[in-house]
Amino acid sequence: MVYGSVSDSAVLNLLSTSPDDQFLQFDDIPTVLGLANVTRPYHHLAFSAYNVFTPRDPAFKDRITEHDFNCAVSSPNALIGSRDNPDPKHRSKGAYFGIENKTDMQQTGLLPYFTLLSFNIKPMDAPLPGTLVSVKGYRQEDEEQPHLEWRVDFPSGYHLPLAVKMQEYSREKWEKLHGVEIVADFGEDKLDWEFCLDDLEVQFFKAENQEVGIPWLDQIILEDHHV
Questions:
Q1: Contact at 8 Å (CB) between 122 and 195?
Q2: Are 153 and 166 in contact (CB under 8 A)?
Q3: Coil, strand or helix: which one is 123?
Q4: How far apart are CA 205 and CA 193, in angstroms?
Q5: Cys staple from 131: which of 123, 151, 153, 215, with CB 3.0 to 4.6 Å?
Q6: 220 three-class SS
C-alpha cells in the first residue's frame, strides 16, 4: 500500500493488479528450411535452447517421422527444445524461458513476473524405454533450486501432445515466476532428448493505481478543520 498526501479529503492509493493472459503459438515467426530462432523478446519472454520449427516443412522430410507432425498443435509452427543451453545468464540445465527485461516490463505497466497456466508437450519420436519430462519453475533469476517442480513420464510409443494444465495437474499454482526450465531425460542414463512445445499460455499482470476514499480519515480532517 502507498499512502498519498492528505488534503481536504483522505485518499488511499492502492496498487492493484489485473491479469493479462498471453497465448503463445509461435505461428507468427517465419522459418527458413523449417527452422528459426525465437524472436527476442517474444511476449516479454526470452527463450534459450529452443528453436521454432515447422514440422511439415519439406526440409524435414526423412528427418522426423509423420508421427511428429502433430507437434504443431496450432499450425504451422511449434518449438523444439533440448538440454543444450548456450545462454550464460541462466544456470538451468534444460531448455529455458523467462522474463527478458524486468525494467522494460515495469515501464509498460506490467509486474516483472508471470503465471504459467498451460502448454502442449511431447517427446520427439518413440524409442524404448521412454522419456521423463521435468518442468521446473524459478522465482529468482539466479535461483539454484526450483521453487516448483512437476514431472510426467512418456512410455515408448508415439504420442499426441499432452495438454498440460499446470494448476490442475500439479495441484499448485505456478505463479510469480521469473522463468521455467524443461528437461527431457531418455532412459536409465537420463540422456538428453528433444521435445516439442506449443500453445504456451502464460499470465502477466498489469499494475494499476486506484484512488479510494477513506471515510474515517475524512471525518478526522473535517473535525480538525472545525477546531
A1: yes
A2: no
A3: strand
A4: 34
A5: 123
A6: helix
